[in-house]
Structure formats: C-alpha cells, structure tokens
Amino acid sequence: MKQHAKQLATNPLLEKICNEREADIIERWRSTSSMLERESAWYELKAIEGFREYLATTISNIFAGDGDTSGGTAGSGDTAGDAAKE
C-alpha cells in the first residue's frame, strides 16, 4: 500500500493533469464576463483543490500507519477497496 501511495504522490502525470486543468479553468474564468461562468470555474478550482488535499491527507495517513485512508471525512471509506485488501 505504501509503495502505491508513494508512486501516486510523486506521479508527474497526475500533477501535470491537475495543473493543466487548473490553467484551463483560470483561462476560462479570465475570458468570460458571465458571473455564472466565473462561479462555475471557481467551484471547479475548489474541487481540484479539494481533491489534492484529500489525496495528500490520505497518503499522509497511509505513511503514518494509522490505517485511516478516509481523509478525515466520515462515511467516505471505500468498502470495495477495503475488501480487496483483505
């Protein structure tokens, strides 16, 4: 599990994908005057930020060895993933 977490944490493709998506969203936000489009872009940026935070927390928990891979969110455990580990 730790090896997979390390690979994910250092995966340049994942970082590139997130960075490119953020850049696309920011460009869309800058190029529109529509309040709805800007609000939508803001929510998309927040979603990427939330994904990165969740990923970092989950990886940190794996390396801490506490066994909690839920990222601190109640009820978000992956029961299919847990079953596969057993």
Protein architecture, described:
By secondary structure, the protein is mainly alpha-helical. The chain contains 4 helices and no strands. The protein has helices spanning 2-9, 12-31, 35-64, 79-85. Helix 1 (2-9) packs antiparallel against helix 3 and helix 2 (12-31) packs antiparallel against helix 3 (35-64). The longest helix has 30 residues, at 35-64. The radius of gyration is 16 Å and the shape is elongated. Residues 73-86 have low confidence and may be disordered.
Number of strands: 0
Distance between the termini: 12 Å
Strand content: under 5%
Number of H- or I-type helical stretches: 4
For the largest beta-sheet, the strand count, sense and barrel status come to: none
Can you summarize this structure?
The protein is mainly α and 86 residues long. The chain is 76% helix and 0% strand.
Defining traits:
mainly alpha; single chain; 86 residues; elongated
Mind sketching the topology for me?
Layout lengths: L1 H8 L2 H20 L3 H30 L14 H7 L1
